[in-house]
Design brief:
The complex is a heterodimer. Chain A is mainly alpha-helical. Chain A has 18 helices and no strands. Chain B is of the alpha+beta class. In chain B, the strands form 2 sheets. In chain B, strands 3-2-1-5-8 form a 5-stranded mixed beta sheet. In chain B, strands 4-10-9-6-7 form a 5-stranded mixed beta sheet, covered by helices on one side. Chain B is elongated and about 90 Å long. Classes of the chains: A mainly alpha, B alpha+beta. The interface between A and B is large, with 107 and 94 residues.
Amino acid sequence: MELQAIHKEPTSFLKRYVFSEDHKYIAKQFLWAGLLFLAFGGILAMAIRWQWAYPGQEVPAVGKLLLPRSGGVITPAAYQSIFTMHGLIMIFFAITPILIGAFGNYTIPLMIGARDMAFPKLNMLSFWFFVVSQVMVLASFGVQLGTAGAGWTTYPPLSTNVGTPGHGQTLVVAAVFVTGVATIMGSVNYVTTVIRFRAPGMTYMRMPLTVWGLWLTAILNVLFVPVLGSAALLLLMDRMMGTQFFIAGAAGGKGDPILFQHLFWIFGHPEVYILILPAWGIVSDMVCFFGRKPAYWYKGSVYAMCAVTILSAVVYGHHMFLTGMNPLLGQGFMLLTLIISVPAEVLFLNWLHTIWKGSIRTTVPMLFALGMIFVFGLGGLTGVFLGTISTDLYLHDTMFVVGHFHFTMAAASFLASFAGIYFWFPKMFGKQMNQTLGKWHFWGSTIFITLVFGGQMIAGYAGQQRRLFDPYQYTFLKHLHPLNTYTSYAGFALGLFQLIFIYNFVASILSGKKAEKNPWQVSTLEWSLPSPPEYHNFDVVPTVIRGPHEYANPDAIKLLGRDWLSQTEILPEAGAVAESEVTAGAAE
Amino acid sequence: MLANRVPRILLGLAAASSAVLTALLATAAPVQELGIGLPRDVSVDGHRIDWLIKITGAFTAILFVIMCVWMALAVVKHNKDHKAEYDHGNAKHQVKFAAALSAIIFFVVDGNLWVNSTIDVSSAFWNFDMVEQQADTLRIEINAHQWAWDFRYGGPDGKFNTQDDIVGMHELRVPVDTPILVHLASTDVIHNFYLPNFRIKQDAMPGMVNKMWFQSKETGEFDIACSQHCGTNHYKMKATLIVMSKEDYAKWAAESSAIASRAYAADDSAAHWGWEWQSK
């Protein structure tokens, strides 16, 4: 470990506000970019829900504007683009920048006591590569034949020129490659920063669990995003240079479509954990911060997250049980997949034990953290049906899968993101968010997100396949129309409740009450700094003497009259406190 | 002492009974009209999957309810007026408890899934050797393309891609109480042959022949669906499975094969999409 020098704050406009190398500013850039695309992906989701509630009817308000040629009605071609881009945008261009780009950048250096990232310039480049990829995504909507339509999984041959000709699909595959480059740049930075720039005394086992989650995510990103990159490159070559890596069948190729699936899911399954590990970390910290109790079996949580990180790389085959996979291989993937439930159980038990016998403060971040445990419980428990071959024979590619991964990847990371935003907002912007509006936002989000994704699971249990433009073409799905309509209502309500957040977020930045240094009374390093912190974070790099969750310590209560101790605070001797109090009293 | 314990016991009982109630609801008979149940099962082996889904549903429902009750109690009982306990949870007995509980859940829920899935898959769903050896097995080649299903029967000579092949589209006719062995391929992109009333599906891959088999207990008409996104008209890629009595099927097969032989045209290459049957 080494000490970082203090960088001087740049004075030129470009270096301050555009190509900033300050991790705190880059974090905000990622946050804005991610939130904008979250709204975009959310609007696409509303369009999908509209189609399932009112197939063939004109989309209200914006329909004529966005789909002029069909008179505002969603066509099958438009529909496949909508669900494809909803998935890709949410995963790569909304959740990834918020959870990893924003929280990773903001919290890692502050929480480990570093003055900046290890490679500030690379950090800046990471953001601007990401912006380029977002622009490519937006551009793909404007080209002839429209944007990508082969599903977010982009399986060839459908994703080659055989199934989706046109520059839209090409642009989107290229955008995924570019965003991968941005992710790798960011992740190399995170991995290095955590290894090299922890403050003196900040051992691995004293790191906040948020940092653990983000660090393990960064390691997974560095290892597996390159695999996605290679798959994207091979696919681009098939599309643009006439190669046939993935083309087979009547199109004449001797390629192997399954090869793409292997490459995609070797990345794709770790990706699920890439999106959930930061959420786990954030929630693990929140339950201590607002349960006012030390983390229950901290090391167990760390080991569990490490175990999940390792296992995540060897379970991907459960996405491919039905490709004609060798049954023995399927058997192995099933066993490994089921084993992942063990570390997940350890984490759940630790969260529950942490809040048990605590002194729970139901602040907005805590509510969102508890909401995340609730939805992740639903998502995690329904996963075992899909990791098992025989039940997957029926449930594979149904809405049950869609509901399951929305509960885990969407609902859980969405609620954890909001926990994080409400929690670090005072530090990031120096202002307070309105807690009452936050609570409304919490209840609306959690209730309706559960109803939307629960409705999807019920439809899938009844057999509805995913990605159907009009499910009611099938006799066995006709009776699901009312269910899907109610689910859509829940979806629209979920969307409306986000308006509260948008208002609260913007209004608080503009005219929120000034935030104190440590409004939550918590013990991690970032809360020992002013809100917002100085450009170089720490005037003096702190020396850490204890773990991140020191609450309800009887000595602290006796000697200091409060229930928490910061990570750097030396507990005064019993006599010393009494003495200083006496002196202070005398001085008055 | 006892007075202290009574509310705890009551709470425990309340939690346990609500868990069991939820589990019972989860396993209760499906209510078709509300759209919350499994489609009717008409296959010989589908009940294995239904049972495994329901028993796992019950297990997971119990776990979920316990988790919710635990959280709710903590939030209500151990609120800001409760003095937090200073406990790092890393004492030996605590770690042992967490590890043991996780292990028990794993061995019961996941263990049950693993054992039953392994038995079901190797003895039924993917047991192609058994089906190959059965004398009355009907062999069918299915080719998927955007956006329809083609079906091919070997005809009286039992050989594929010959003059007497019955070739059809949109309708798959099979006899009841007979194992149907399907070899599945695709012309263009990946499709997925899905029989909701039989609880099975299988990918149709271009450049590859995949296998599946099923057997119906009842006559009737059932949906054949595509469950892999295969382009704009994916939602319309459906067909009908018509399960007939053995006599009706035999009659239909004989007539259709005779018609097929008469209508055979050697130069109609598009109609000769079949392939030689590979029994291994």
